[in-house]
Design brief:
By secondary structure, the chain is mostly helical. It has 9 helices and 3 strands.
Length: about 160
């Protein structure tokens, strides 16, 4: 069975099981959303937000992209923040990075000419890596450099003023 078909079948099964477990689940969701958290995470398939946080539909307002990047001048991410804060009035904004991030690793390597959009997207991360070059170069292990830059990236996300 091809994967898209398998996903559709799994979705039908999930909906049936969810409705059987909680008959008012979907009618409650249809009333609207009031998540308390905006989660900005990486698009990496290994860090699915609701799965790793044990959350249910309606619990989180989620934006995911390569390397959980937030650019204040990016309308995609900015519109998510604007809506989350001004309309949904979330109480918390979480930028969640992860170790072993391929987007972070790419920012420490020469740009891949076959990925121009990715290169543009991670350019601020490359800049952050240059800013912290001495600290990153102190790690002889590549994995340790990638993981430290992932940490620095999350810390950097909370220090820049943003105006949604
Ligand atoms: Zn990642």
């Amino acid at each position: 069975m091809n994967r898209p078909k398998r996903l559709l079948i799994a979705n039908v099964a999930w909906a049936r099981e969810t409705a059987a477990r909680n008959p008012s689940f979907f009618s409650n969701l249809a009333q609207g959303q009031s998540p308390h958290v905006l989660w900005i995470g990486c698009a990496d398939s290994r860090v699915p937000t609701e799965t790793i946080t044990h959350c249910e539909p309606g619990d989180l307002f989620v934006h995911r992209n390569i390397a959980n990047l937030f650019h204040p001048d990016d309308d995609n991410t900015g519109s998510v923040l604007e809506y989350a804060v001004r309309v949904l009035k979330v109480g918390h904004v979480i930028v969640c990075g992860h170790y072993g991030c391929g987007g972070v690793r790419a920012s420490l390597m020469p740009p891949d000419p076959s990925l121009p959009r990715v290169n543009r997207r991670i350019a601020p991360l490359c800049s952050l890596a240059r800013t912290h070059r001495a600290e990153l170069d102190a790690h002889t292990d590549e994995r340790a450099r990638v993981d430290r830059l992932a940490e620095l990236k999350v810390l950097d996300s909370g220090t820049k003023p943003t105006t949604p």
